[in-house]
Known about the structure:
By secondary structure, the protein is mainly alpha-helical. The protein folds into 2 domains: 4-52 and 63-84, no CATH class; 101-142, no CATH class. Helices cover 47% and strands 3% of the residues. The protein has 7 helices and 2 strands, in the order E-E-H-H-H-H-H-H-H. A two-stranded antiparallel ribbon has the order 1-2. Helix 6 crosses helix 7. It is elongated.
Amino acid sequence: MNPLINGFQLSASQLEGFEEFWQTYPRKVSKGRAKVAWHQTTGVRPPLPELLAALRQHIKQENWLCDGGMFIPYPASWLNAERWEDELVIDLGPNVNGKQWHESASGIEAKGLELNISPEQFDDWQAFRAAVLRAVDTTLRAA
C-alpha cells in the first residue's frame, strides 16, 4: 500500500520510477518513507536514468562499501538530501602490468564502467575512449 501525504494516498503515477530506484538502492529500509521522499523530490530529481547513474556511482564509493554498508544512508535520506548532486571521489587506480589505466583498453573500459559509460553507447571504441577521458577530466577539474 502506498503511504499517505497530508491525508491523501500517493497514486501510481506519483510513484512512477520508484520501484526501479528501490530495486537499485542497496539498503532496503523504510520503503514508505522512501516513497514519500520520492514524491517530495519530484520537482528537483533528475530524469530516472540520470538518477540511477548517480546512484550506481554512490554504490561504488568506499564509504558505502566499508563496514558491511553501515554508512549507506536510508533511501529517503539520500533522496531528501539530493545526494545525486554529491561530488564523488573517482579512484584513478594503480598501474596494471606497468601501465596506468588510460594506457590500456582494459583500463579504459574499467574506468568507463566506474563512470557508467559503456562502449555500447558509442559507434566505435575511439569515441568511447574519448568520452571516458573527457568524463575523468571534467571530474578532476570540478574537484
